[in-house]
Amino acid sequence: MSCLHKRPKRTKSQDEALQEQLRKVAQENGKRLGLEGDADLQFLLIGGELVKIRSSSWKKNRFYKLQEDCRTLWHESKKTFRRNQTFSIDDIESVRKGRQSEGLKKHTDPSVEEQCFSIIFKGRKKNLDLMAVNAEEANRWVSSLEKVKTTISNLSHQQKSEHWIINCMRKADKNEDNKMTLKELKHFLRQINVEVDDTYAEEIFKKCDKSNSGSLEGAEIKHFYDLLTHREEIDVIYNKYAQTQGQMSLRDLLNFLLNEQREQATAEDASKLIEKYEVDETGRQKKHMTKDGFLMYLHHEEGSILNPAHIPVYQDMSQPLNHYYISSSHNTYLMEDQLKGPSSTEAYIKALTKSCRCVELDCWDGANGEPVIYHGYTITSKVLFRDVIKAIKDYAFKTSDYPVILSLENHCSVEQQKLMAHYLISILGDALVTKPFGDTMPTNFPSPEELKGKILIKGKRLNKLDEGTVSEEDEAADCENGQKAKPKKSKIKLAKQLSDIVIYCKSVHFSGFEHAKDSHGFYEMSSFKESKAFNLAETSATAYIHHNMDKLSRIYPAGSRTNSSNYNPVPMWNVGCQIVALNFQTPSKEMHLNQGRFLTNGTCGYILKPEFQRSLSSQFDPNTLTQGPWMKRKTFYIMVISGQQLPKINKDKHKSIVDPLVRVEIYGVPADNASKETHHIENNGFNPMWNENFQFDIHVPELAMLRFVVEDYDTTSPNDLIGQYCLPLTSVQNGYRHVPLLTKRGDVICSAGLFVHLMLLDAQ
Fold it and tell me: Active-site positions, per UniProt (predicted)?
C-alpha cells in the first residue's frame, strides 16, 4: 500500500506569494531556457511529494521541487545536520521510468511498476529511486525532468555561460533586493573563481555605479556584466577582419574563414553562418556579422576544435569487423575495485550507454542453480547472469546501433552453462547471432553495418565452424584470463548449447603468430594480458599488425591491478589491436584517451583503422619508422590563448581560487609522444590569459591523439585536475577554436572551456 498522500494545501497568501515567485522565475530563467510559461517547468517549480526508496523497510515521504534557478532540484532531508539537500540537473545522466533500477526491482512490488521511476546520476553517486502517488504523476515527473534536462544540455556554450554568471549574481545578492553592494560584488567575484584586490574591486564598482548610490542596480549591473565578460582576445581578432564600417561583411568573414581558419569555405558558407549566428536583425539584412554574432559562431560547433564533419558516422562501416578499433570494457560488472567492490547491472548500463561495444561477463555457479557474475575468489558482490542479460537487451543499442560483443569468462558447471545458453537465446531473441551469415561457410567477418542491432558471443567452442555439430558436452581448455582460472585445473566441461552460439569470436590459446596463421580460422581469437601484449607490440609489431588484419585480438589489464587501474591503450591501437579492454569504472588518463579515440564517428564505438593497418602489403612498425604511406610528417602549431569559467576545485572553501595552467599532450607512435605546458596564472579561474605558443613534430598523424589538461598549480602537493579534453589529431580544425572541458569522469563542464589557435601543416 502506498504511503503517499496528496499535496498539502497552501493558504491563500502562500499561494499568492508562490505565484508571484513563479511569475518572476518564468520571466527570467524560464525565458533564458526558452521555457517561459511552460507547463512542465511550472510543475517542477511547484514540486510535490514522492516516496524515496532505499530498502524494503526504508520508504520515506520527501518533498521535491525545482529551485528558482531552474537548474537545481531541492528535496527535504530529515537528517538534523542537513535539513535540505540539492543536486544539479547537470548531474543527472538519465531518468528511467518504471522499476528499472536494481533497488526498485528488489524493494518494490511489480504492482507499483507504473508509479516508479529512478534518477540516475553521473559518476558514482547512488541512484535516486522514487515512487509517485499514481502513474500519471510519475509520468509527469519523468517527462518534465527530461524536458528541462534536454533543454539545458542543448543550450549553446554562450547561453550556459550567461545562465551560470547570472545565477552566481543572484546568489551573491544576499538580501535579495536586486541590487549589488561592494561587499556582494566581492562575494560574487569569489564565486566565479576570481580573486581581486580590494582596490581593483572598488575601481570596477565605481566605474559602474553611475548613480553614486553605493549599490549597483538595473543598467549598472548590466554594465558590470559587460565589463566582466568582455573578451579582449576576441576584440583583437574581430577588429583585424572587420573592414566594413567597423563590422565584418560577408567578404570579410569569408576572408577570415579562408585565411585564419584554413577552411575550404565559399561565400555561401559565410552567408549561412551570418544567417545562423548573427543576433542583430539589421546586421543579418546587410549580410554583416557583428562582434556578438562572431562570438556566437566561435562558441558553436563550427567554431569548435572538433571538426563537425566527424561528429556523425562518417567512416565506411562496410569493412570486416576486425578492421575497426572497438570500444571495450574489462570487468564490466564492477562499479569500483576488484577485491570488494559491488557488482551491478548498472555498470553494464553505464558502459553500454557510453557506446562501449564489448563487455565482459565473469560467470560462476550461483545458488539455487542460477549462474551469477562477479570477480571470482574475491568478496565483490554477485549479480544474477539473467539480470545482466536483461539489462544488455534493454540498453545495448540505446546510443549506438552497431554490434555488441559479450565476452564470456566461463567458470560454470555444465548444468548452469545450459541455463546461461537458455537465457542468452530466450532473452536476446533475434538480436543474438546463432549462425554464420550467408549460405556458404564464411572466410571473413561481416561488417559492423551488416551486424547492426546484433549481439555476438565470445567464448569457448567445442569444434570449428565448418566441422558440423557435436553431440554432447566435452572439455575445452580454460586458458584465457590466467589470473581468474580455477586453481590446478586447465580444462572445463563445456555445454554444447553454449558452444553452439559462439560463432565469430571463438576463444583460443595464443601460441605464436605463425601458429595462428597456419592453424586458426579468422573467427578464432586470443586474449592477451597487458604484459604479453606490450612485449609483442615492442618486439614483433609488424607481425602483430598482420595478425590483426585477419583476426581479432583482445587485450585486458593485469590481474595485479586490484584497484581497477588501467594501462595505456595507445601502444595497443598502434599495432592494430581491436578490443583494447579498459576498466570503464575507473576515471583516469587512460579512459580519457579511450573517450577521445571514440569521440568521433557518431560516438558509435567503432573507429576504422588506418589503411596501413589493414593492407596486407604494409610493413608498418610504430617503433622503427620507415618511409611508407603512414609517414605523413606534419608540424603542429598551437597557441594556448585563454580560459573561460574554470570551476573551483575546493568548493567548500569560500575563498579558494584556482591557479590554472594548461598542458598540451600528444599520444601516438613513440616518436610523436610529447608534452608541453604553460606557466600558471595566479588566482584567476574566470578568464585566465596565457598566450603561449608550442610546436610539435608529428610523424604518423593518423594514430596521434591530442589531449588538453587544465590543472590547479600547487607548490607543495601534486596539481589537481580542473578539466581535460582529448580527440584524434586528424579531427582537429585549424584556426581560432574553443575547446570544451570535461571532468575526470568524462562529463562536460557546462560553462568552462579554453580558447586556442591551432595549425596542422605539412612539415617543410
Answer: 330, 375
- What does the pLDDT look like over 422-452, one tens digit per residue? 999 999 999 999 999 988 889 999 999 999 9
**Residues that are catalytic:** 330, 375
8 A C-beta contact, residue 237 and residue 259: no
439 is in an annotated binding site: no
**Is 77 marked as binding a ligand?**
yes
State yes or no: 633 annotated in a binding site. no
Residue 653 has pLDDT above 70, yes or no: no
What residue type is assigned to position 727 of the chain?
A: L
Q: Residue 221's pLDDT is what?
A: 79
| C-beta separation of 523 from 445 below 8 A | yes
**pLDDT higher for 383 or 10?**
383
If we measure between CA atoms, which residue out of 468, 529, 453 comes closest to residue 499?
468
3-state helix, strand, coil in the chain (%, to 5): 35, 25, 40
| Long-range contacts of residues 20-29, Cβ cutoff 8 Å, at least 24 apart | 21/68, 22/46, 24/68, 25/68, 25/70, 28/166, 29/68, 29/69, 29/70, 29/71, 29/163, 29/167
**Residue 399, all three cell numbers:** 546510443
pLDDT tens-place string over residues 62-105: 999 998 878 889 888 776 555 558 888 888 999 999 999 889 99
Cβ neighbors of 359 (< 8 A, separation 6 or more) are 328, 329, 332, 348, 351, 352, 392, 404, 405, 406, 407
Q: What does the pLDDT read at residue 251? A: 96
In eight-state DSSP terms, residue 205 is H
Rounded to whole angstroms, how far apart are CA atoms 203 and 200? 5
Burial environment of residue 383 by CB neighbours within 10 A (0 to 12, 13 to 18, 19 or more): buried
Looking at the chain, how many residues does it have? Answer: 764
